[in-house]
Amino acid sequence: MTVFRPPDRGRLFADLTAPGRSSFDWAVLLAALALLIPVSGLASVLFAERSRRRGYPRWKAAMAIGIWCLVLGVSLRAVMHVGVLP
Questions:
Q1: The total number of structural domains that make up the chain
Q2: d(CA 39, CA 76)
Q3: I need a labelling partner for 23 at 20 to 30 A (CA). Which of 16, 52, 56, 72 fits?
Q4: Is residue 14 part of a domain?
């Protein structure tokens, strides 16, 4: 039987205020937007790179999401016969 341990609030706060966290959040937000406007996928990749330079350990997830949503956004607009740029 496992014992429930409450989350360590100090660690949670440290993760939320870690260097590169805001860049990571922007990268994920822009990746979601890249499904509709593929150009924002490039900005997402740049923010993921910025998160890497600041030493945030989850930068690879942001990079993968940014590139994947960029590819999906371009593919979706190609299928709909709409240009990549809005």
A1: 1
A2: 13
A3: 72
A4: no
**80 and 43 Cβ atoms separated by less than 8 Å:** no
What's the pTM? 0.78
Residue bearing tokens 């822009």: 30
For the stretch 45-49, contacts whose Cβ atoms lie closer than 8 Å and that sit 24 or more positions apart, written own/partner, are 45/70, 47/23, 48/23, 48/24
What's the domain range around 51?
Answer: 20-79
In one-letter notation, the amino acid at residue 39 is: V
Q: Which residue has the tokens 């990549």?
A: 84
Q: What is the pLDDT of residues 26-72, one digit of tens each?
A: 999 999 999 988 899 999 999 999 999 999 989 999 999 999 999 99
From 47, 54, 1, 3, select the one nearest 24 (Cα to Cα): 47
Q: Based on the number of CB atoms within 10 Å of its own CB, is 37 exposed (0-12), middle (13-18) or buried (19 or more)? A: middle
